Amino acid sequence: MRGRWHLNGKGSARAVEVGRGRSSSRLMNISTSIPEIDAGNFASARWVLCPPNSVKVVCWNINRGLQLERIIDFLGRSKADLLLLQEADLNARRTWHLHIAREIAQRLHLNYVFGREFQELTQGTRQSPAFHGQATLSPWPLANARILRFQQQSNFWRPHWFLPEIEPFQERLGGRLALVADADVGGTKIVTYNLHLESRGDDRLRGSQLDETLKDAERDKIDTPVILAGDLNMDVSAGKVAQRIARAGFKDAFANQHLPTTPDSFMQHGRVIDWIFTRGRVRASQSQVHRSVSGSDHYPLSARLDFG
């Protein structure tokens, strides 16, 4: 499929306007004609005779969806119950003006919610803006989607009057966020936090963004199954950040037996920056970093979560 995205096509799609972004003194406000959260339902109806006692979750930074066919191939083969994806494009030139989250949902017959992180100023126009953000998908119903946009942000992406509006400078409006949604898995509510912490900042900034997420998760009862996963852009296996995660009741799905989640490059070795944490009545097993998958500049992570 090649063409421009649209919200109201085949299948069931809906959109909810939940807020406005910050303005740019040089260019424009974030387009308010496009909602911060877009959602669609493309999964088949399910009759649940025996509720599942486990779910499979996949977490993956898909690098805008540039290698869409490889991404869809892996996600389809994964047979996951929950997909938490970061860096999904919407109407960007570099990804054929597709709504990547919606495209994946339609092709794999899933439900989805998409939260816009940034308006990509060099990828669209004022009349046809482009966006970038997180997507959570599932064959199970998704509800109560909302955005937790972090109070602490980097100024790196803001437009500057002295920079030309061309792609290498990647000027943006918006800010990093956690996309929160509830999944109803055969009658069991699972709260998902889909994170993308700042890449253009230090660990102090990223730690503050993670703290906002941990604080927000306090609204759910301690035994409620919660998944906190995403591209954290830092190693949180030790130190004060790891202690704060543990105090909040979250456990590392990999039990700190992580492999690098990004490939080696000419400049540096692969890094451990993508994570899956759980809290509540779930226990992780069969955790894996899929290092043979080449659909992005990150490897996908998966884990089996057993209900306790």
Describe the structure.
The chain has four helices and 15 strands. The protein has helices spanning 68-78, 100-108, 203-216, 239-247, and strands spanning 12-16, 37-41, 54-64, 82-90, 111-120, 131-138, 142-149, 172-174, 177-185, 188-196, 226-231, 251-252, 274-279, 282-289, 301-307. The chain has 308 residues and is an alpha+beta fold. Helix 1 packs across helix 2. The chain has a single domain, classed as Endonuclease/exonuclease/phosphatase (Deoxyribonuclease I, Chain A, 4-Layer Sandwich), CATH 3.60.10.10. Mean pLDDT is 88; it is low at 1-12 and 15-28. Strands 1, 2, 3, 4, 5, 6, 8, 14 and 15 form a nine-stranded mixed beta sheet that branches. The chain has a six-stranded mixed beta sheet with strand order 7-9-10-11-13-12.
